[in-house]
């Protein structure tokens, strides 16, 4: 499925490929799945972990669950948005290390956004994705 996605980092834009994402993702006509922002809440309930590293791990597990449910892989992610309440170089490194491992070489278009708050005061990170589905 992922072969129908074209990734671009034109010379007229900064080379995002060096950082693990693409400036432009082109998806052929197909069905798309818009996955709601995932936070560090587990399906079985409970409280969110305290650290950004632990929260990111839960978010990644939730994203993997969405990929499994749609019978897709990280290679099918067209776009990803990462929202963080405490966005700075160190927190980005903590989160993006896990995000890049999850992407496993896929380089979707990616946007990082610093926000004042998420759905609950303890939440530090939220990630939403758009996935290209098989026809």
Automatic annotation (TrEMBL):
Q: Which family does it belong to?
A: Belongs to the RutC family.
**What protein does this entry describe?**
RutC family protein YjgH
UniProt-listed InterPro entries: RutC-like_sf (IPR035959), YjgF/YER057c/UK114 (IPR006175)
Q: Which GO terms describe its molecular function?
A: deaminase activity
* Gene3D superfamilies xrefs: RutC-like
Q: Which chain regions cross the lipid bilayer?
A: none
A GO cellular component annotation here is: cytosol
Q: Which PANTHER family match?
A: 2-IMINOBUTANOATE/2-IMINOPROPANOATE DEAMINASE RIDA, PROTEIN HMF1-RELATED
Task: Please give one Pfam family short name.
Answer: Ribonuc_L-PSP
Give the lineage: Bacteria, Pseudomonadati, Pseudomonadota, Alphaproteobacteria, Hyphomicrobiales
């Amino acid at each position: 499925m992922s072969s129908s996605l074209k990734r671009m980092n034109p010379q007229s834009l900064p080379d995002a490929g060096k950082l693990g994402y693409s400036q432009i993702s082109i998806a052929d006509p197909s069905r798309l799945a818009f996955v709601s922002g995932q936070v560090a809440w587990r399906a079985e309930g409970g409280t969110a972990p305290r650290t950004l590293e632990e929260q990111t791990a839960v978010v990644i597990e939730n994203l993997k669950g969405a990929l499994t449910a749609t019978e897709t892989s990280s290679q099918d992610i067209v776009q990803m948005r990462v929202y963080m309440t405490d966005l700075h170089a160190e927190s980005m490194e903590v989160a993006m290390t896990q995000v890049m491992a999850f992407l496993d070489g896929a380089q979707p278009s990616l946007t990082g956004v610093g926000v004042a708050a998420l759905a609950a005061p303890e939440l530090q990170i939220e990630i939403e994705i758009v996935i290209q589905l098989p026809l």
